[in-house]
């Protein structure tokens, strides 16, 4: 006799894309560099990957970002996929 156990998985999604709009206001200013310092497991790499997807030329990411908070902002397409983007991680 086999016993099957089903686990219900609850998935949460936290939309942190509003940081893109905040960072876009700093482009071409003295505050254009970003340093994210937080404790372990706070999503620093996820935020960097999201910023790279938005600003970077590596691939068209509009379909990925449509529907998030940033897509509702006034200047959504102004900086979308316009820059060479590099990030360095100390991991």
Description:
By secondary structure, this protein is mainly alpha-helical. Helix content is 25%, strand content 0%. The longest helix has 12 residues. The chain is globular and about 50 Å long. The model has no long low-confidence stretch (mean pLDDT 84).
Secondary structure category: mainly alpha
The strand count comes to 0
Main β-sheet description: none
Q: How much helicity do the residues have?
A: 25-40%
Q: Report how far apart the termini are.
A: 47 Å
Mean pLDDT across residues: 84
What fraction strand?
A: under 5%
Shape: globular
Order of helices and strands: HHH
CA radius of gyration is: 17 Å
Low-pLDDT ranges: none
Q: What's the total helix number?
A: 3
């Amino acid at each position: 006799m086999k016993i099957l156990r089903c686990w219900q998985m609850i998935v949460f999604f936290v939309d942190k894309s509003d940081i893109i709009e905040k960072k876009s206001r700093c482009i071409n200013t003295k505050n254009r560099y970003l340093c994210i310092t937080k404790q372990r497991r706070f999503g620093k790499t996820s935020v960097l990957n999201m910023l790279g997807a938005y600003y970077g030329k590596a691939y068209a990411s509009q379909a990925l970002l449509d529907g998030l908070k940033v897509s509702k902002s006034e200047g959504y397409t102004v900086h979308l996929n316009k820059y060479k983007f590099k990030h360095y991680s100390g991991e």
